[in-house]
Amino acid sequence: MKDNTNVIENNKQELDMLEVGEQHKFIVRNDAYDDRGDYWYVEIYKGMTYIVFYVSQATEFHTREEAQEWANSHQVVVEIDEEGNEVG
Q1: pLDDT at residue 28, rounded to an integer
Q2: How many Cα atoms are found within 13 Å in the side-chain-facing hemisphere of 11?
Q3: Apex CA 61: angle with CA 46 and CA 22, to 5°?
Q4: I want to staple 42 with a disulfide (CB 3.0 to 4.6 A). Which of 1, 28, 35, 56 is the partner?
Q5: 71 near 42, Cβ under 8 Å?
Q6: How far is CA 23 from CA 1, 19, 31, in A?
């Protein structure tokens, strides 16, 4: 019988690389646009919570659950890609 250990290991490594490359982050923002049609985002800095205008300043979380801990009833958790664009 042929030993497929190397093939299996190579496939696992390729899958790991794909998963790492496609990992998205989660941020918290208000659930509705403001008067000017913009969202506001949550930033956590030195243990304090701030509301910021730019998505680039928002705190990025690794999991939806982690982000949900910082959201209130008027905020939602959204998934973002590497450029900061909402996914889905």
Answers
A1: 97
A2: 5
A3: 145
A4: 28
A5: yes
A6: 38, 6, 23
| Contact assessment for residue 75 and residue 30, using Cβ atoms and an 8 Å cutoff | yes
- Give me the amino acid identity at 61: F
Token code pair at residue 71: 């959201």
Name the residue with tokens 């300043």: 57
Contact 28, 75 (CB under 8 A): yes
Q: What does the pLDDT look like over 6-22, one tens digit per residue? A: 656 655 555 554 454 56
| Other Cβ atoms closer than 10 A to 79 | 14
Report d(CA 1, CA 47) in Å as an integer.
59
